[in-house]
Design brief:
Layout: H1 3-14, H2 18-27, H3 32-39, E1 46-54, E2 57-64, H4 72-80
Helix pairs in contact: 2-4, 3-4
């Protein structure tokens, strides 16, 4: 993916409603190169905060630098790691 394609994809994602973004993250199929691009600290606008578990659930706090930070790469990582459900709340 070129920088221009990535910028266009980000602009398209930011134009979506929160519900559309969540559905897009759930249904997206990521290539390794796409995922690596968005997980690179230079391209990420989020970082992990506190993490904890309880009652069979894991809670991860994500600190966003941008109100509409693209979290699809994180959703994909969590699903690939075996998460049954990834919700934003």
């Amino acid at each position: 993916m070129t920088l221009e394609e990535a910028d266009a994809g980000l602009a398209e994602w930011r134009a979506m409603t929160e519900e559309q973004q969540e559905e897009d993250a759930r249904s997206a199929r990521w290539t390794l190169s796409d995922w690596l691009y968005w997980m690179n600290p230079d391209n990420r606008t989020w970082s992990l905060g506190q993490c904890g578990d309880g009652m069979g659930n894991v809670r991860i706090v994500v600190l966003k630098q941008d109100f509409q930070a693209p979290l699809g790469s994180l959703h994909w990582l969590l699903r690939a790691a075996g998460a049954d459900d990834v919700t934003v709340g």
